[in-house]
Design goal:
The structure holds 2 protein chains of 2 kinds.
Chain A: H1 13-41, E1 42-43, E2 46-47, H2 50-57, H3 59-92, H4 98-109, H5 113-124, H6 129-134, H7 147-171, H8 175-183, H9 188-217, H10 220-226, H11 232-242, H12 249-274, H13 293-321, E3 323-326, E4 329-334, H14 337-344, H15 349-377, H16 381-391, H17 398-409, E5 410-411, E6 414-415, H18 420-445, H19 449-456, H20 461-489, H21 495-498, H22 506-516, H23 519-543
Antiparallel strand pairs in A: 1-2, 3-4, 5-6
Helix pairs in contact in A: 1-12, 1-15, 1-16, 1-17, 2-12, 3-7, 3-9, 3-13, 4-7, 4-13, 5-7, 5-10, 5-13, 7-9, 7-10, 8-9, 9-12, 11-12, 12-17, 13-23, 14-23, 15-16, 15-18, 15-20, 15-22, 18-20, 19-20, 20-23, 22-23
Chain B: E1 5-14, E2 17-27, E3 32-36, H1 43-51, E4 58-63, E5 66-67, E6 78-81, H2 93-103, H3 108-121, H4 137-150, E7 155-159, H5 167-184, E8 187-192, H6 195-201, E9 204-209, E10 212-217, H7 219-224, H8 229-234, E11 239-248, E12 251-256, E13 261-264, E14 275-281, E15 286-289, E16 296-305, E17 309-316, E18 321-327, E19 339-344, E20 350-352, H9 369-377
Helix pairs in contact in B: 2-3, 2-4, 3-4
The chains are: A mainly alpha, B alpha+beta.
Amino acid sequence: MTASRPKTKEFDVWQVISWAVLAMYALFLIYPLLKLLWAAVYVDGSFTLEYFGQFFAKKYYTNTIWNSVKVSLLVTLISLVIGVPLAYFYTKYEIKGKTALQVLIILCSMSAPFIGAYSWILLLGRNGLITNLFKPLGIQLPTIYGMRGILLVQALQLFPLVFLYVCGGLKNLDNSLLEAAENMGCSGVKRFFTVVIPLCMPTILASALLVFMRAFADFGTPLLIGEGYRTFPVIIYNAYFSEVGTNHNFGAAISIIAIVITTVIFLIQRFANSKFQFTMNALHPIERTEVHGAKSFFINLFCWLVVMISFSPQIYVIYTSFQKTSGKLFVSGYSLDSYRKAFESADRAIPNTYIIGLEALAITIIIAILIAYLVVRRQNRMNDTIDTLSMVPYIIPGSVIGIALVIAFNAKPFVLTGTVAIMVIALVIRRMPYTIRSSVAILQQIPISIEEAALSLGSTKLEAFFKITVPMMGNGILSGAIISWVTIITELSTAIILYNLKTITLTLEVYINVTRGSYGIAAAYATILTATTIISLLLFMKVSKNKEITF
Amino acid sequence: MSVNIKVVDALKKYGDNTIISDLSLDVREGEFFTLLGPSGCGKTTLLRMIAGFNSIEGGDFFFNDVRINDMDPAKRNIGMVFQNYAIFPNMTVEKNVAFGLKNRKLPKEKIQEQTDKFLKLMQIDEYRDRMPERLSGGQQQRVALARALAITPDVLLMDEPLSNLDAKLRVEMRSVIKEIQHSVGITTIYVTHDQEEAMAVSDRIAVMNHGDIQQVGSPKDLYQRPANLFVANFIGRTNIMKGKLKAKDGKAVLILKSGHEAVMDTIRPEEIRDREVNVSIRPEEMVVSTDAETGIHATIDDSVFLGLNTTYFVHFEDGEKAIIIQESKIGSILPKGTDVKLNLKTEKLNIFDESGDHSLMTGVVNDLDQYRKKADAV
């Protein structure tokens, strides 16, 4: 028998991980943002508000704030009006081909927004398919360019987010609540508005914030379809690229204004959300009921109409990718020429897409799981700080992150611009908040005693984590990873600022070819992207146990 | 190898909140020891300090002579059974049981042998390839126990292991647990708030309240001679009444509020003097009769027939109420409103001082006293 041991301070591996994560955020988030702020107010050795003044002096600029906020709010509203009833119908009633419906809804959300914009131009633009169909009949369709077009494209692109969120929320709604309401004489439409919507309010608000942030940060759509209707991300992009050399001061100033706006919106959402503090856990989830007659007809019509309209542009893009082209114009007949041309110049874009995407995905998941663990299981001040920091990119538009990274890493001591690394870093930082949130949610479901059991059975802390906790989180992580993957490969707003010829990706190729007017090649690239998405989704469905997709 | 566990002056704080202070405890080698108390009394906290999942703010914890305060939970060689079983849902039954053995890097044959042994012992051999979600609560419980024991731990810790089971299974599992513990002969600390469960399985019980141990002793000691009013109340059911103690010719006479007097032969001589006391009379320590000449006068309020026994709810002349349990007899149950006489089984009564903190009886066993005396000596 040994005598009592001297007291030793235990070496805690999680403490080390905390420090590493904190250092990572300091270098790749705080440092770039401070540099950005610095660039906006400090020029040639003196403090100045000149660039902010420049912005607010011209109506040309200030109008874009109003434009952006207006269009984003309207998009949010329309997405909710489409997405919430759709989610309710999908959860509550038997809908014909419900699995196909769900897959299509997910696919609608899984294309880069500007591909939607571009396809709607192909359909409803000045020379669009549908426009031309109606022309001989003497019917002039309303123009798709401007705010109307942005609303159409973004709402049809973003309502699936509301759908997925609210479906998740409805899953936690106990059927007995609905039955109780009916029992007390509240059913049908009245029940939907007085019981279902209030109970889903936290989820609805969360999806609303997400939709707003996406709409606000999207610059591809307004650039392609907005024409005279200028929005904020467009001028950030223009300001950035019109500057010569490394002087990004004006771009930096606008970026700061953008962050202020998104922060205000975020705080408003927080405030609204604080009015709905409750948790639900459904013992008896809602079961789908059969509907008949007119009711069934209208419910099915609504669901399928919405989905088909949203999905039609993608189908049309795929169709045009097989059309014959002559120069930049489509001519009658079919060929694989567009693909041939696409592959000729795709020797970089295709491998880049998968290499950058997979690297970013892997790093995001690993770090997100570690952070989730720190936040849930090791609550202390340092890890709370990490938690807050990790949410910061959620409210910062992608292009702003891109600019901040360029400003921070285009000069010594850290030169990263033009490398694959900086593309990966940008994607990881942008995707992290979502993956952390979902990992935290999963981890909170796992009782801590499971890990303690492993520890008491002789595992080390890391072994317990990797052998027990991570596998238990597995399926949940997979559900989040599929969305992450698709978001990463279709990401544009940050990549457009950071890319160069060496790091070009498929999404960038689509965008570049659309702006060049090479619609055939763009369609071919877009089709390759869509195919990748569909294959990923099918693979996921095969591997995943619960077939659920979460954010 | 089994160990004895010694806790000396344990201290647990959450921030500025002291949960446990100056707690000392001895668990003998091979003993089935239970921490019993109401929820929030600190019993699980103490168990988790022993397991190494809660930090220890002060005091010393020993397994035999080894101080374990700063030892990693993984190195304490503890088998633990959790309230929710904490079965790894991503592993089969067999892999769950083998998990701890694999961590010890034992040879493959040894792992297999040991796993088989405990799967058989717990009679879950046939489910070895099943995933945990396809097991019933009782089966999961068996897996948890097999897994904890397979590593041949020095100590087995169980945190309310039966609280998630239905009543019938709980009774069945507690005899399984007791049997296994005896056959393996491992020092066991068991946490529960269910006093009946504690009595059924334990060699000794520590009754806890507000972070303090009230009494340590065998189930019989605790039930028959509780050290204070809290223990009397917590273990079993009892009627508490105020009364007076009078010294008459060197003998103690108990006078109840009703005026009924009883000579007590079981009071410690040094405690015999005129004083106010608390009297604990268990429901079975009173005999009901309708024809007795003497006894305390009471009236039946209600009765519940439970088969073996019948419970009577009565009130005394001063309005105070009591519960009485009698063996059921053939014939009718005494109807409401019946006037009866109650006679006391005086040798079974327990009398406490006015505050209720100390028993005045002879024969009180409290293993905690050894620490108190030490503290007094200092």
